[in-house]
Amino acid sequence: MLRPQDTSTRERKTLDGIWAFRLDADAVGVQNRWYAGSLTEARDMAVPASFNDLTADAAVRDHVGDAWYQRTVRVPRGWDGHRVVLHFESATHRATVWVDDLEVVRHEGGYTPFEADITDLVTPGEVIRVTALVNTSLSFQSIPPGVVEQTAAGPRQRYWHDFFNYAGLHRSVWLSATPGARIEDLTVTTGFLGSTGSVGWTVQAVDREELEVHVVLRNAQGDEVATGIGEYGSLEVPDVRLWAPGSPYLYDLEVQLVDHGGTVRDSIHQHVGVRTVEVRGTEFLVNGEPFYFRGFGMHEDHAVLGKGHNNAHLVHDFELLHWIGANSFRTSHYPYSEDVLDYADRHGIVVIDETAAVGLNMGLGGGILGGQGYTTFSPETINDTTREVHAQAIRELVARDKNHPSVVLWSVANEPESQTEAAESYFRPLFDVARQADPTRPVGFVNVMLAPHGECRVSQFADVLMLNRYYGWYVHTGDLAAAEDAWRRELQSWASDGKPIVITEYGADTLSGNHSLIPQPWSEEYQVEYLEMNHRVFDSVEAVVGEQVWNFADFATTSGIVRVDGNKKGVFTRDRRPKSAAFALRRRWTEAR
Ligand code: BDP
């Protein structure tokens, strides 16, 4: 699937704006055919945005289950003879969509795109009604998992990840026109030898018949540097300029379907960064050179918008990444908007791309901070069906993001149970799925403290070890000397595996404006000293090839006794004001630049 584009043969029209919106707590809408006419008793809702924080109503914020979105749109007059597609960049966590009275598509998973060919249902120049039934519930068979518990007060959504279960239409919705004979997908791979680059392409075309596939590579000035013909092949790029972290040179690859007379019948564009990624021993190499990840685990999370994508926030967050000297981030804990990845490509920021598989661990954070009262992997909980949903989530992530030069490493899950035999058999095939989907990038998962070296049974499948550790916060709280000693010992044991290690989370909750002469947990001074302690540990272990602080900014979570108005491990507040740690990190990271 390609994202809708404006090209010489394609056009798109946004459906972003105000939609009609109605909750359906009792799930009666389908039976009552709410899609078959104007949504009654509806309120206004903005798209893109999470619906949760847009009203002053707890029933909306904490809604569990079905929610309906509807709007009308006029199909552009000029689209006669075109194939018309309705494209959702995401719908969290699943959706069913109707055009007028007809169901056109269903999709499972809240963070990847889906679309429907609606050509036969529309007349260019006429208005259609688009209705999306979005469902917010998490179950043991969804990614991420959760469980809806019935209480006297109604259903309550429980889940095991530490961010608020925002839902709705978080990203853009498009109508798009393409030719019938069309390019359906494109896979690009890159490499180089000396000063000559290579750009491999594979095109999937539909109804191509006599049409020839042409590819044209242009440099940043728009000059043609190589051309090719065929559904697949490889272009040579003389005097190649590489895409590198902090130095993001991009080419443009145009793919065309051309008829005998030379007329271009379909055309798409894909920006291309020529670069290589490789794991060698304990090194992580980009373009053959050792790369050290500096940055954050982030979240798509803002006041009012929730997880709704917004370009002003995108630009600002990347400005802050640049200011602080970060060169990378992880899309913790789900695939981010495609606009974010495009922006990372254009700004030379390296991305660890993660699925929404978070919270597959019943050993974490339950009653009195023990377990959750469930077994993680069992026929009744996370089971074979879940694994198939998880596999599909991996395939959809790779299919969507495979052509981004910024993406250098896949993360198939965050902090799952990984010390048991059940975990080993659950994950083994998922690593195969990732490697089959993309043989060009390393694959890993993020390990949790409950599965230390020697006990973790999943890290054997990973090319890179990603560790989340909270020495000095969740353990040895407030005692940085004891934390340093224990942390160094654990890290040295991981280093004996001979794989590169990225510390994907380390952090301390910090209440902005809370100061203390003798660094106390929750103070800005403690966050600074905590980070410095961690950095001493990382600098003493050669296999460590990256540090990503948890978190870039404070973010919303479910309420609970360990969260005060959300998670406060941000180096910036939720409204992006720096805590003292921001300046300390900036000193370390800009010196390293
Ligand atoms: C880790 C999780 C992350 C949490 C963080 C924390 O990966 O999502 O927000 O800890 O506790 O367990 O702050």
Characterize the structure shown.
With 593 residues, the protein is α+β, with helices and mostly antiparallel strands. The chain has three domains: 11-178, Jelly Rolls (Sandwich); 182-276, Sandwich (Immunoglobulin-like), CATH 2.60.40.10; 290-591, Glycosidases (TIM Barrel, Alpha-Beta Barrel). Helix content is 18%, strand content 32%. It contains eight helices and 32 strands. It has an eight-stranded parallel β-barrel, surrounded by four helices. It has a six-stranded antiparallel β-sheet with strand order 3-2-4-9-6-7, with no helix packed on it. A four-stranded antiparallel β-sheet has the order 1-12-5-8, with no helix packed on it. Helix 4 links the parallel strand 27 (350-354) and strand 28. Helix 6 runs parallel beside helix 7 and helix 7 runs parallel beside helix 8 (580-592). The radius of gyration is 24 Å and the shape is globular. The protein starts with 10 loop residues before the first strand and ends with a helix. Bound molecules: beta-D-glucopyranuronic acid (BDP).
